[in-house]
Amino acid sequence: MSTVYDPLDSRYLDDADLAEELDRVFDLCQGCRMCLSYCDAFPRLFDAVDRHDGDARQLDATERAQVIDACFQCKLCAVRCPYVPPHEWALDFPRLMARAQATARRHEPRVSRRRLEDAALASMDQTGPIGSALAPIVNRALEPGSRLRRLGERSVGIAAGRRLPSYARERFSRWFARHRATAPAEGRDGVVLMATCFVEYMAPRIGVASVRVLESHGCRVDVPQRQLCCGAPWLHQGNLSRFRAQAARVVDELVGWLDRGATAVVVTQPTCGYVMRHDYAAYLGSEEARRVSAAVRDVSEFVVERARSGVPLPSPAREPGTVTYHVACPTQAQGAGLRGRDLLRLLGASVRVVDRCAGIDGTWGWRVEHQATSVRYAKRVADAVLGAASDVVVGDCHLANTVIDEQLGIAVGHPIELAAALLGLEGEEDVQ
Hints:
Distance between the termini: 58 Å
Number of strands: 7
CATH topology of the domain at 316-422: Rossmann fold
Structural class: alpha/beta
């Protein structure tokens, strides 16, 4: 029996060892079937096993590939599975799927449409500065159904009908460069804010709100001038060499801030937070990566834990009303609790929780071959948000928020943005 989820293990990319582990896990999953409704990987698996009279070992390569392709790394099955470590069966379905995707990647041609598609979706450090500099033009060109989007669907497989996050004219790091800090420049309560590439180029208002709330809570905030992509798109594509190279760049940047006294790496997006918290140490294996991983905190998590430790938040400047809080899948996977919800409750909000996967999960839902499945999940989360019937809708994940906006035509903010508004911290030094 093989249980290899450690990417540094010599057997990690071994085809025969992987096949043995797929047989073991598929057999355990089909005997339980608790995860039937989580994603299409499980219905595909169970249907295939049933066609073979319950024998998971009889699945052929095509049937296995269909299961693997349907996993979009939401990780909800691992959060709720009764057989994850330390159980003796040591089952971790998302990590097994990540291993399978990385192993399959080794057999792909070096030049292919798939690799071009992967590069187009993962190269945010290259495309982000251009998109931001030419925001009005680029945003119009990237409207769903536009000529450029139809060309993109034919050439690199990005679904023309899906809404993509729009670019902001002013990058978050440039806003921060002109920002006048309100917290002490010295002291033990300094943090380094990793706003992430989405916030840097597309949603700087989340970074602005994070700075304002953290400073109002007495924290000194530092922001690296280079807001690098965390590398999640490369990891989710199974491209381990590109992921490791990107992760190493981020670690090199952040470990210097920890050396200079930062007490935490505060992250604004849950997918990035998960990858930095759980995958950097696992895939890099260095002491520096372990230091960075141990220091990572979600921005709402950091504020809530600081408030609960005895540092009071300022009093709200206005009544919060009723709020719908969408729980992003990677928020749950981090295992730190629903801190966006908790932050708003600390400020007096009545919070209604919507726990539905938005089916976007990184770049998976933008691919044309996944569009129908992704939109089916999007409609489910939209129905749940409508059913909550709240004054305001927020969610931790900017991509999931974009999906809700795509379906309902409503603006969905981040909990830290609403917190800044409730504390009366918005308005001054707005993003241009």
